[in-house]
Amino acid sequence: MFLVGLSGGIASGKSTVVAVLRELGCAVIDADVIARQVVQPHSKAHQQILQHFGPEILLENGEINREALGSIIFSQPEKRRLLNSITHPEILKEMLKQVLKYFVLGYRYVILDIPLLFETRGLTRFMKYTVLVYCDPPAQLARLMKRSGLGAAEAEARISCQLPLEEKLRWATHVIDNSGDWESTRRQVLQLHTRLEDSLHFLWARLALGTAAAGLGGLLFLLIRHFIS
Ligand SMILES: CC(C)(COP(=O)(O)OP(=O)(O)OC[C@H]1O[C@@H](n2cnc3c(N)ncnc32)[C@H](O)[C@@H]1O)[C@@H](O)C(=O)NCCC(=O)NCCS
Ligand SMILES: Nc1ncnc2c1ncn2[C@@H]1O[C@H](COP(=O)(O)OP(=O)(O)OP(=O)(O)O)[C@@H](O)[C@H]1O
């Protein structure tokens, strides 16, 4: 089994790409979804957030007020680091559990959608491939403002909390350019899927070749021993 890391920038189109991959039957683990699960009331992360950010960070029903927490952490780097240090270990643990689940279910590869994959460089070494969902900066800004109802200044501030997409381009093994229309993105995702499936066949072919070579070597060894003795 191998892991594929999928990342991008805020509003660059990761969920859009993941929706197509899921449609094609791929196993995908979404770190943003897990980030929401691990801060549910009574969880360890929820208690720590309450302790460090105060009761004003909660909604009336006891859940985290994500909008309020977002306003704080996207404008204060030290608070962002604090939130990351609370949530990231919990997110990683849950991701690992889900990888094991997919392994047991027999999936040959799992796609991990991790927004901060390239910022957390240590993680990339566990990935056979890394896919960057790229989007040109003006389109990214416009889509973020529209999707999240933010003004230009606030949207730019959120984008600058992450490594620039241009830099992430240097690290990715595969790139999907989502600057254009949905159809163009869909075509690229289909190509990526074909490549992942092909690489699976390649792995099987290598395994079969390796087994055959070992068998032949053994036979040769027995023959030589037979003629020498
Ligand atoms: C700040 C929070 C409450 C905002 O919640 P909200 O529902 O508005 O946004 P959502 O979770 O859908 O995130 C949207 C995008 O914001 C960006 N983002 C989220 N957290 C961070 C962060 N700590 N640093 C930089 N970018 C981030 C990512 O691109 C993400 O895809 C939430 O994002 C959060 O708890 N973040 C900390 C956990 C984290 O790092 N999540 C990212 C996945 S590892
Ligand atoms: N090719 C496209 N053309 C037009 N709009 C798009 C395109 N791709 C995505 N969008 C829109 O841009 C917004 C961001 O896309 P999406 O949610 O897929 O990004 P994301 O990377 O998952 O975002 P985040 O990390 O912030 O959650 C959404 O409102 C989506 O509908």
TrEMBL record:
One Gene Ontology molecular-function label: ATP binding
Keyword hit for Transmembrane helix: yes
GO BP: any one term: coenzyme A biosynthetic process
TM ranges: 203-224
Keywords: ATP-binding, Membrane, Nucleotide-binding, Transmembrane, Transmembrane helix
One Gene Ontology CC term in the entry: cytoplasm
Pfam families membership: CoaE
InterPro entries: Depp_CoAkinase, P-loop_NTPase
Matching PANTHER family: BIFUNCTIONAL COENZYME A SYNTHASE-RELATED, DEPHOSPHO-COA KINASE-RELATED
Family: Belongs to the CoaE family.
NCBIfam families reported for this sequence: dephospho-CoA kinase (TIGR00152)
Protein name: Dephospho-CoA kinase domain-containing protein
Species name: Taeniopygia guttata
